[in-house]
Amino acid sequence: MRIKRIETAEVNIPLVTPFKTALRTVDSVNDIIVRVVTDDGQVGYGEAPPTAVITGDTKGSIRCAIEEFIAPNLIGMEIDNLDGVMKKLNGCILKNTSAKAAVDMAVYDLFAKSCKKPLYQVLGGGRSEVETDLTISVNSVEEMVADSIKAVEQGFQILKIKVGKESLKDIQRIKAIRDAVGKDIKLRIDANQGWTAKDAVRIIRTMEDMGIEMDLVEQPVHAHDFEGMKYVTSQVYTPILADESVFSAEDAIHIIQEKAADLINIKLMKTGGIYEALKICAIAETYGVECMIGCMLESKIAVSAAAHLAAAKGIITRADLDGPSLCKEDPYTGGPVYAGSRIVMNDTYGMGITGVPGFLD
After folding, report:
1. What's residue 11's pLDDT?
2. Same domain for 299 and 326?
3. Are residues 211 and 281 in the same domain?
4. At what angle do helices 249-257 and 274-287 cross, to 10 degrees?
5. Alpha helices in the chain (DSSP H)
6. Which of 66, 97, 116 is the last residue of a domain?
7. How many domains does one find in the chain?
């Protein structure tokens, strides 16, 4: 099974409501999708969101990286030579992690199909179901409370609250949501790098003193402010999750050894795909540090790849894989089933996705 061609297309899926964070506002999933075709007619799929404010990748850069650098290097390689393919993929161009991730997951999709197993089983996992949270975008207090109540009514037991724009008002937002949904719903707070270290400590301590229990606080300070992250982590009881601070295995080692965070957030668009994400899982297991698996604003293809990894690795104890739940429609066929907070893994081969619009056969 050799790689015959690698193709790209574009998908645009409207969101149920605009997605708002401290960094950006988006009203649709407008991503690059990838199809890797082998000489025996097998097909693997991948996806890359252009998240310029985080990864630096744009639609143009993703397509250019795949079509001009990645494809010429991978065409003709055997899918069974997975390690060789991944080393060539990661060595043919620097950075461009989203483009690499899209091709990486398509190759893993094909590799699992060659093994005649679902991807999560090939990766070593036995869990057939993953629970995800649901993101509550940053808005007025009243709107965020209403969105949180609606999410709980839909069956979500874990909410990811976007904050980071107005430090003092963020406390009001979180308290109002906690009062509205009750103490049994888990709250994950994501500041998206929006606070200073001192503000983060003040906000988190205030909420702790108010008795507001939080599952974690994600990336309270700027991605490169490792000293700030370490300061926040050392000054509060609530677990701190490193997200934008961790792109690579080297980043994970640095964060863990410096005790700059309690938890690591793995995103395939940061790591460049499953191959490098597995290294972070191994490092985290070695140090006994739990991980969360997250996503950018992605549709079912990329989120399904992350879900398979989550189902495979016990060190991944939390999932933030709500991308498909935020979309108005699902243009794909096959793959895991997204039933509210439950992601039920497919028992078909690979990632299970069989129909992807946008490609000319």
Report:
1. 95
2. yes
3. yes
4. 20
5. 59-64, 71-74, 82-91, 97-115, 119-122, 141-153, 167-181, 197-209, 226-235, 249-257, 268-271, 274-287, 300-312, 323-326
6. 116
7. 2
- Is the dihedral angle over the CA atoms 259, 202, 187, 320 positive or is it negative? negative
- For 58, the domain range is 3-116
- The pLDDT score that the predictor gives to residue 96 is 98
| Cα(12)–Cα(158) distance, integer angstroms | 27
Per the structure block, which two tokens stand in for 252?
Answer: 């994970």
- The pLDDT tens digits for 95-142 are 999 999 999 999 999 999 999 999 999 999 879 999 999 999 999 999
- Residue finishing a domain among 96, 116, 136: 116
pLDDT number for residue 281: 98
What's the rounded Cα separation, in Å, for the pair 20 and 160?
12
* Local structure of 284: helix, strand or coil: helix
* Residue 53 dihedral angles phi and psi, to the nearest 5°: -75, -10
User: What's the confidence (pLDDT) of residue 17?
Assistant: 87
Give the pLDDT confidence score for residue 125 in this predicted structure.
Answer: 83
Among the listed residues 36, 69, 66, the one whose alpha carbon sits nearest the alpha carbon of residue 50 = 66
Integer angstrom CA distances of residue 350 from 12, 119, 286, 301, 321: 24, 5, 28, 12, 19
What pLDDT sits at residue 361? 65
Residue spans of the chain under pLDDT 50: none
159: in domain: yes
Active site residue ranges: 162, 267
